[in-house]
Design a protein that fits this description.
Helix content: under 10%
Radius of gyration: 16 Å
Shape: globular
Strand content: 35-45%
Distance between the termini: 49 Å
Structural class: mainly beta
Number of helices: 2
Length: 158
C-alpha cells in the first residue's frame, strides 16, 4: 500500500504562525505579499467571529529557491474576533476574479487599544476590512509547496 506524501517528508516545515500585535502582523503580511485568491476562497462566519481566506502564497521564506525554483503553497489566513467585515473595490458577483494581496495591516482604535481593524489591501485598489475586538491572526500552510506557474518570484519593479 502506498501513502500520500507528507510535509515531514520534505526538508522544510510548513508555516504555522500567529499574530497578536502589529509587529507580528507585519511578519505575516510579508509572508502573504503577492498571495492570490478568489472571492470563493474567502469565508466570513459571523457566528464564529472569523474571516478565513484560502490563499496561494509565494514562499518568500524559501532559502532553497535557487535549487528547486520558485514555489507557492496553499495556506489559510484566518482573522479571529471579527465583529464585522466590509470591502471596497470588489465586484462581489465576480467570484472567479483573481485577487492579489499587497499587505495586511492592523489599525487600532486608539494608541493603547487592542480593538480596531485588520485591513487586507489588494492590488487594483481593492480592500477587505475586518472590525476586530482583539488582534488574532493565523497563517498556516495546508498543502505541500508546488512550483509557481510563472516559474519565478513576483516582480516588484513593474
Amino acid at each position: 500500500m502506498t501513502e500520500d506524501a507528507r510535509f515531514e517528508d520534505g526538508r522544510e516545515a510548513p508555516l504555522n504562525l500567529g499574530a497578536f500585535d502589529a509587529e507580528d502582523l507585519d511578519v505575516v503580511s510579508s509572508l502573504v505579499q503577492d498571495a492570490v485568491f478568489t472571492l470563493q476562497d474567502m469565508a466570513w462566519r459571523p457566528r464564529e467571529r472569523r474571516l478565513a481566506l484560502l490563499i496561494n502564497r509565494f514562499r518568500w521564506e524559501d532559502g532553497a529557491r535557487a535549487r528547486h525554483g520558485a514555489e507557492r503553497v496553499r495556506a489559510l489566513l484566518v482573522i479571529d474576533n471579527v465583529e464585522g467585515v466590509s470591502s471596497q473595490g470588489l465586484d462581489r458577483d465576480d467570484l472567479d476574479v483573481i485577487l492579489s494581496v499587497l499587505s495586511v495591516r492592523f489599525e487600532p482604535d486608539s494608541a493603547e487599544d487592542v480593538a480596531g481593524y485588520v485591513t487586507l489591501t489588494l492590488a487594483g485598489d481593492g480592500a477587505v476590512r475586518a472590525r476586530i475586538e482583539a488582534l488574532e491572526v493565523t497563517l498556516r500552510d495546508v498543502t505541500r509547496p508546488y512550483r509557481a506557474p510563472s516559474g519565478k518570484a513576483p516582480d516588484h519593479d513593474a
